[in-house]
């Protein structure tokens, strides 16, 4: 509190659990390692950022939230895969990306200037939806295999 932090660390085998909380400047961080894996959560209030990262095997899950400027970001990696969500309010962008295997799912939303975009890739394929409001156009594209 103020400049303060709370930290908890636990190791089991090679694993680590870490929790850190700062209020004021502030961040909350949780990190857990199991085997080679890591779970990480960080929250900042004020600036603020919320971040969660989990690694299981080579994989990681990450969530980040910024309020004020603001961004919400979630990333999950399982194998080579990642899931990402980013939201900005104010300027604002919402972004979601999911990778499974080589695949990606992407959603982006801008409010204000604003566009909504969704992209899904599974294998080599992508699905894209974009919406712009104000100057505005709506775009939807779907690719599966080599198709559009």
Automatic annotation (TrEMBL):
Compositional bias ranges of the Low complexity kind: 52-71
Ranges annotated as biased composition (Polar residues): 1-44, 72-134
Region annotated Disordered, chain positions: 1-148
Name of the protein this chain belongs to: Uncharacterized protein
Protein species of origin: Xenopus laevis (African clawed frog)
